[in-house]
Specification:
The chain has about 80 residues and is α+β, with helices and mostly antiparallel strands. It has one domain (about 5-75). About 25% of the residues lie in helices and about 35% in strands. It has a four-stranded antiparallel β-sheet, with helices on both faces. The longest helix has 11 residues, at about 15-25. The chain is globular.
């Protein structure tokens, strides 16, 4: 079981996706520039999956940076806990 974003970051992309789909909980999707970004809760941290529609490709899978301006897009749709 992955218990921190540090261990999650070390996984290869296919294993990150597998872990998210099997063990994570989908929270919400947002549109962010050219991406559809899916937000997941995995144990005690959030993970973003950046999907590029134009190229039909997942470009990034990363833990959520709660200081990023993208948080405004999430907070407009759902209420995220301050500290998870």
């Amino acid at each position: 079981m992955i218990q921190s974003h540090v261990f999650f970051n070390e996984l290869p992309p296919k294993e990150k996706l597998r872990t998210l789909f099997l063990e994570g909980d989908f929270v919400v999707s947002i549109r962010y520039y050219g991406y559809k970004v899916n937000l997941y809760l995995l144990y005690n941290f959030y993970v973003e999956v950046f999907y590029n529609h134009k190229h039909d490709f997942i470009e990034r899978i990363q833990p959520l940076d709660q200081n990023h301006s993208r948080m405004k897009f999430y907070s407009d749709q759902i209420k995220l806990p301050e500290d998870i």
